[in-house]
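User: Alpha/beta-type small acid-soluble spore protein, Sulfobacillus harzensis:
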Amino acid sequence: MAQGSNTSNRALVRGAERALDQFKYEVAREIGLQGIEDGYWGDVPSAQCGAVGGHMVRKMIEMAEQQMAGRTR
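Assistant: Predicted structure for Alpha/beta-type small acid-soluble spore protein:
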């Protein structure tokens, strides 16, 4: 699918794009993904990109659960 054609793939909160992008790179480093420091993800296999997205979702759910429980990180 061409970049920009998926209109649902955007931040729902205005101004969150930069934070989400930083979060993506943080998670990628945590799982040991290398070669993306320059911002180019074209050489990264789709399975690894999916792993980054999956870990992002898990961490966001964890943060939301902690916030709901009255704890902050």
